[in-house]
Amino acid sequence: MLNGGAVSWKSSKQDTVADSTTEAEYIAASSAAKEAVWIKKFISELGIVPSIVDPIGLYCDNNGAIAQAKEVPTLDNIVDPLTKPLAQKKRDGHTRSLGIRGMPD
Q1: Could you give the 3-state DSSP secondary structure of residue 19?
Q2: What is the pLDDT of residue 1?
Q3: How many Cβ atoms sit within 10 Å of the Cβ of residue 82?
Q4: What is the residue-wise DSSP string for 47-102?
Q5: What pLDDT is attached to residue 16?
Q6: How many CA atoms lie within 13 A of 68 on its CB side?
Q7: What is the mean pLDDT of the chain?
Q8: How far is it, in rounded angstroms, from Cα 27 to Cα 72?
Q9: I want to staple 91 with a disulfide (CB 3.0 to 4.6 A). Which of 20, 26, 58, 86 is the partner?
Q10: What does the alpha-carbon distance between residue 15 and residue 21 come to, in Å, rounded to a whole number?
Q11: 35 three-state secondary structure
């Protein structure tokens, strides 16, 4: 919605097969978010709508998809040792949480 009017809408069969309604809703919300960001950037570049700096509202009625979409801070994200360097104490705590153990010497 922009200034009270819909700027984009879509109803179609998903290209990807989902194993659950949560996954299907998450895929749909992700696709909608990408399009919303593109539209916002496009309209911002046109410079005709001053209120475009407001956050994008995305509505989803599936609690599982909403929970899956929430950002997990690095301090709480136990998979970070698999994707980025961390301080040893934090890495050791996360790897213990994952059940990863070092090989004995």
Answers
A1: coil
A2: 66
A3: 10
A4: T--GGGGSPPP-----HHHHHHHSPPPTTT-TTGGGTS---HHHHHHHHHHHT--P
A5: 85
A6: 17
A7: 83
A8: 18
A9: 86
A10: 14
A11: helix
At 34 the pLDDT is 93
CB 56 within 8 A of CB 33: yes
Q: Quick one: CA torsion of 22, 23, 28, 31, rounded to 10 degrees?
A: 140
Please list, residue by residue across 28-58, b when 16 or more beta carbons sit within 10 angstroms of its beta carbon and e when fewer do.
bbeebeeeeeeebeeeeeeeeeeebeeeeee
Q: How far from 10 is each of 14, 23, 74, 84, CA to CA, in Å?
A: 11, 18, 34, 37
CA 27 to CA 103: how far, in whole Å? Answer: 39
The residue type of 70 is K
Q: Over the stretch 9-42, which tens digit does the pLDDT of each residue have?
A: 788 888 888 999 999 999 999 999 999 889 888 8
Q: Is the pTM of this model over 0.70?
A: no
